[in-house]
Amino acid sequence: MGAFDDIESPRSPTIYSSMLGRGLGEARRRIVLICLIAFFLILTLVAFRRQDTIKDVVSKGLHRTTDATAPVATSDTKTDLKEDVSKPDPPKSEKTQTKPSTPPTSMKGPMLGNGERSLAPESLQDIHNSSLGFGKVFVLNVPARSDKLDAMKLTSSLTGFDFDIIEGINGKDVPKKALSGVWKESPGQGGIIGCWRGHMEFAGEVARRQLATAIVMEDDADWDVSFRSQLEYIALGSQTLLNTPKDTVPDSPYGDGWDLIWLGHCASQPDDGDNRRFVMKNDPTVTPLRHRTNYGGTPDMSPYDNSTRIMYFSKGSTCTYSYALSLHGARKMLKWLSMDIYSGPIDFGLHDMCSKKERGFKCLGVFPQIIADHKPAGAGNKDTDIGNGGDQIRKKGFSYNIVHSTRMNADVLTDGQMDKVTSQWPDETPNLKGPIITEFTNDLHPNTDDKMP
Ligand SMILES: *[C@@H]1O[C@H](CO)[C@@H](O)[C@H](O)[C@H]1NC(C)=O
Ligand SMILES: *[C@@H]1O[C@H](CO)[C@@H](O)[C@H](O)[C@H]1NC(C)=O
Fold first, then answer.
1. Residue 446: inside a domain
2. What is the domain extent for residue 78?
3. Could you tell me what percent of the chain has a pLDDT over 90?
4. Are the C-beta atoms of residues 198 and 224 closer than 8 Å to each other?
């Protein structure tokens, strides 16, 4: 009360009477104006509802097969992509209880070669569940960094998956006695120890909860808006590489018998002398050549064109933005990198396990990576949880290696404006027509002269 009492309410009778007091011409003009405004409003609404254009840009053949006789799932692709960024499937009860008798006909997965292999409907359905077809999704976050968690909550919600939080810890708070083996000096490497500890917590949770599989993401991870479609291809790839018998449905949609699948990294190498490759050609989500940022060895991509992604048996990667573990893999990690003597960065440790293959550790890699790190707009020193990441102010955020970044498109995705999704490198993102073509090869540089007629 008080200060505002004198202000005339807009509904005050004096205003109404003064409007009525104006001439008839004025009223007509007003009606015309109102009609015009209403007309433009309707036009705008209609335009907003046309959200399908981007699916042609982004999906371009995701979900289509190479088999010319197979139905080309144009409209299905649209439905599936919408799913990529909206709602998760409702939780499903135990797989053993409810084998879906008739899979949804709209769900068509990727196919290997000319129909040599495709995902079972059960696998496909699991990949679309709220834990991305893994037992659980975990996000690694230092509790004080609520800003990173907020962003992760938004983007995971847009992609339609749910996660559990693993609380990271600053390395300084890890007592020396809790370190693996014998550290010669005072570690003095807060970041390295904190990071090692966080990832050990992940392996620990997988083991403790007896999860058959789980995936972890660091809290600055980013992925393409067609993440789920990519995961279908990853699943087909790992089932293919693991030589899953065609008439069986593996327990995990990503196949059985692997220990680690390294999806988000900053460099990755295939096993020496192992030429087995799952090849995905014509993929619009492959990082343009000039924008591939890696800090270490990468696979020989010379046999392929610029829009090809591959999967392979891997001797390891660098950076741990995201990877999946099987229960078997998690147990080995606890033994190898905590109970045994290990004192180094976590990615080096996992790399060691992948390359030495002691105790039969089996790793799969993907290149270019489908998960990478995001650098948000704002103060540069936000990038890292320890120390100072830099004094500069970043006007615009960016993500390494991700074409249609979910973070960069979070605002348009929130409004369901799929037609406004943009590539980070619009000039170098090829306008691909036609399906993604998959193939399994065991020979990097085949001599075409040897081909039988
Ligand atoms: C998703 O599918 C995986 C693989 O079958 C399963 O382990 C997991 O429990 C499922 N998640 C949910 C939320 O149903
Ligand atoms: C691949 O990308 C490079 C670098 O952008 C370019 O020079 C080359 O022509 C591209 N190759 C094809 C086949 O488009």
1. no
2. 63-441
3. 59
4. no
